[in-house]
Amino acid sequence: MTATLPTAAPSIAAHAAPAPSRRATWPLFGVLAGATSLAAGFVGLTGNYAEKGENKGLAILDEVNRGGYHVAFLLGLVSVASLLLASSGWRRWAEERAPRSLAARTIPQALAATAAINVIGYSLAGSMALYLPGGTDAGWLTPESMFVNWTYLDFGLLLGWWGGAVAAGCAAALSFGRSAVLPRWMGVVSILLLLPPVGMAIGMALPGMPGFTMPLWLIVVSIGMVFSKKAQA
């Protein structure tokens, strides 16, 4: 009499469908960084610059918007923190999707550089809110010192986004060619939003334009990183 060994039941796990991949959420920090930076730029500059052809000197300090500087400072801090988190997300993405790509490795560094430069401008906006009439330390700085801060803030809230321009150029490089790891539309958007600051820098020596176009670039590309199958964010 021969014994029959029981046949092992097929493993349920072997036939289970693979768990669907979840959309990445880290790019949303890029959306937040871009939105708050744009808001900080517009709020911080509204009513705080002289009209073309005007030269009021120290008298301009009597007309600036202390509350605008305060709001810009707070929004800017949120933007800096979000940029650093987005930078870490891009670094992880580069390690997983394009570990040998120089362009992919440069994007997180460029965004981190943007945060490092921007925090200077946002902090100076905070100092204006602190020392202008109505601030807690009003009158502590001389008008000449305040005027130096005001002069820097003519473009100071926008300058760090040249790092974002470098990141946009790298994203464009990653969107074309046989080894592209980003969708082509991201490359097109990157180039289109790079043209205004680069063109104005060449033609007019205008340094602040990236502060308006590059946050918008980061918002659009970050949303794309959440939904793009090709990017596999």
From TrEMBL:
- Segments passing through the bilayer: 28-49, 69-90, 110-132, 152-174, 186-206, 212-228
UniProt keyword annotation of Ribosomal protein present: no
Entry keyword annotation includes Membrane = yes
Q: Which UniProt keywords apply?
A: Membrane, Transmembrane, Transmembrane helix
Report the protein name in the record.
DUF4386 family protein
